Amino acid sequence: MLEAVKTQQTPVIEGAPRSARADVQLDARLAAAPAPMTGVTAPARADALARLKEQGLPGPRHEYWRYTDPAPFNAARPAPVALEAVAGDPKLFADVDKLRLVFVDGRFDAAASDDPALAGVEITTLAQADAQPGHWVAEAYGVLEAQGQKPVRRAFAALNTAVATDGAVIRVTGKADRPVQILYRPSDAGADVIVHHVLRLEEGAELTLLENGLLGARGNVVIEADLAPGAKLHHIAAPRAGVARIATTHLFARVAEAASLKSFELSVDGRHMRSESVVELAGDDAVAHVAAAVLGDGDNLRHDDTVFITHGALRGESRQVFKKVLKNGATGVFQGKILVRPGAQKTDGYQISQALLLDEDSQFLAKPELEIYADDVKCSHGSTTGALDETALFYLRSRGVPRERAIVLLVLSFLADALEEVEDEDLRAEIAGRLEDWLTAKAQG
Amino acid sequence: MLEIKNLHVQLEEEGKQILKGVTLTVPAGEVHAIMGPNGSGKSTTSYVLSGREGYEVTEGSATLDGRDLLEMEPEERAAAGLFLAFQYPVEIPGVGNMTFLRTAVNAQRKARGEEELSAGDFLKLVREKAKALDIDAEMLKRPVNVGFSGGEKKRNEILQMAMLEPRMCILDETDSGLDVDAMRLVAEGVNALRSPERSFLVITHYQRLLDHIVPDVVHIMHDGRIVKSGGPELALEVERNGYGDILAEAADA
């Protein structure tokens, strides 16, 4: 079914024509979040600002913003949210043995965090690193983001690089014996949270990064991850949509020879979400798996996964597994691209995006793209949209399982392939458990 | 136990009449078989009794221990003691066989106002029943029916039956796709469940399953009706002469 090999050319993507209105909007956006122009990252910020000003904020006519309205991200300020609705940290990962880094409204909170001492891992914050002359972050900050601007413009990532003031800066030299968790907490009802994390995994280093919690009224998260040969990064991001549930997230990764990136996203409470993954397999035998399990419930709900994987070396393996369960008028978007550069022979690229529509009001918009310039590659893609399997539903009910419970089981069944991408069995069980709790609570209304 | 009276059923969408007045009583402790050529309405009978969507009952009734089956949701019928062993058991990837079994057992217990089985008690019970059906621990761990052979799927159906302890078991073409050894294993599983409180309705195309699960009564179904009923010898007659003679005789009557 999915063994089609396609070669097609797509033009370089340009933004839609600029309007005077868009420029006014960008000025307003920047006035609300001024770029700090001091510290070791200042030159990188200046470059990012120039990139942003050159391209402007996206409009609905932009090729990659056709399915998701950028307006909530373009607005100068987010609408304030009701913080009392937030009842503490999410349960997810609460019982996992980890090193916790807490960010309140996007600022590192040392008192609430664990002592950032972990064998084989150096942890600091962007604010601290910025103030340290000669810190390595100066060479890394904004580099992968800038590379990720071609051929597709990513204005909110450039904005993030230009104005972010904090984030985690992590250098991994060995095998971390427990995960590092980035936990977001909101405190200000109007917080427009912009965080930028920089990860550097040295040769053979291994790290599991958990990212969850609640951003503020609006969220903009960028992660830049540079993986040296043989390094392994396991990234698990779970509801980081925040209180207002409006967020853009970008993961930029460069994967060197025989290194491996596995990124999994769980989203159960988004409202207007855009999640981008931009990964380059830069060395031979590099591996990148990007997966997501998304539950969308409600009108005006939009969850957009936009993925760009570039194969730039020999024998690279990439997998994209995206599953969305949609109901009550929710819209799921998937824009997934595999680019195979000339010479990237023996590439093995796979992409699947599937939606389970629980009613007739919901929709799934999928745009798979393959662009291949090598002749000895295996690339396959597939996309399906379907309803619940009535025969399976009857089978479960005929065994005495009530309808609501049977639907929960079938939704979990649908998401299983995406969850399989979480390598660690305990973490996978933790995620499946929380997912089941959430579905069950939702089913009971 | 099971009483079907003058049951008329049509396909909801096409309005096509499938059952045209089925009347059948299965008393407690008995095993009845329904035989008949393809398209006679055997499987439809099993689906209508268990509550599958897509069928409309236009006339007649079906009761289990005096309770109206047709008014109930499929899960309520299960809790009332009805069990259908599927001709094509459904694969459910990502849901472990054990999770599925435990969910089903406890959902039924809950519906009947009984206490749910603890994890320990459940595990003990399922291991004991699985062993008798030659189902190993690996098969219990795997997702429901995924990657199972035809024989394994049918054994898994019988395991569910053994765990759920229904009052009335319907077996829909359980012999289809089974070799002789697999069929014997399935039949042994069914025979082990025979008791004075439990009844069976065995739907089959061929007589061979009835060598292993010996019925008390055999019914021949044709064109949506029971056209002849008799003892186990009726199945042998079908085996020898096909359905032709019986159907011709019924047409004359």
TrEMBL record, chain A:
Query: Which domain of life does the protein's organism represent?
Result: Bacteria
Xref: Pfam families = SUFBD_core (PF01458), SufBD_N (PF19295)
- Which GO BP annotation is one of this protein's? iron-sulfur cluster assembly
Domain (SUF system FeS cluster assembly SufBD core) ranges: 191-414
Question: Residues in domain SUF system FeS cluster assembly SufBD N-terminal?
Answer: 43-182
Cited InterPro entries: Fe-S_cluster_assembly_SufBD, SUF_FeS_clus_asmbl_SufBD_core, SUF_FeS_clus_asmbl_SufBD_sf, SufBD_N
As for family, the record states: Belongs to the iron-sulfur cluster assembly SufBD family.
PANTHER family in the cross-refs:
PROTEIN ABCI7, CHLOROPLASTIC (PTHR43575)
The identity of this protein, by name, is: Fe-S cluster assembly protein SufD
UniProtKB/TrEMBL annotation, chain B:
> Is the keyword ATP-binding assigned to this protein?
yes
- SUPFAM superfamilies this protein is in? P-loop containing nucleoside triphosphate hydrolases
The transmembrane segments are none
Which GO MF terms are attached to this record?
A: ATP binding; ATP hydrolysis activity
Q: Which Gene3D superfamilies match?
A: P-loop containing nucleotide triphosphate hydrolases
Domain ABC transporter intervals:
2-248
Which keywords, in A-to-Z order, does the entry hold?
A: ATP-binding, Nucleotide-binding
Keyword Nucleotide-binding belongs to the record: yes
By its UniProt entry, which PANTHER family does this protein fall under?
ABC TRANSPORTER I FAMILY MEMBER 6, CHLOROPLASTIC
Question: NCBIfam families attached here?
Answer: sufC
The entry assigns this protein to a family as follows: Belongs to the ABC transporter superfamily. Ycf16 family.
Name of the protein in its database record: Fe-S cluster assembly ATPase SufC
- Which species? Paracoccus salipaludis
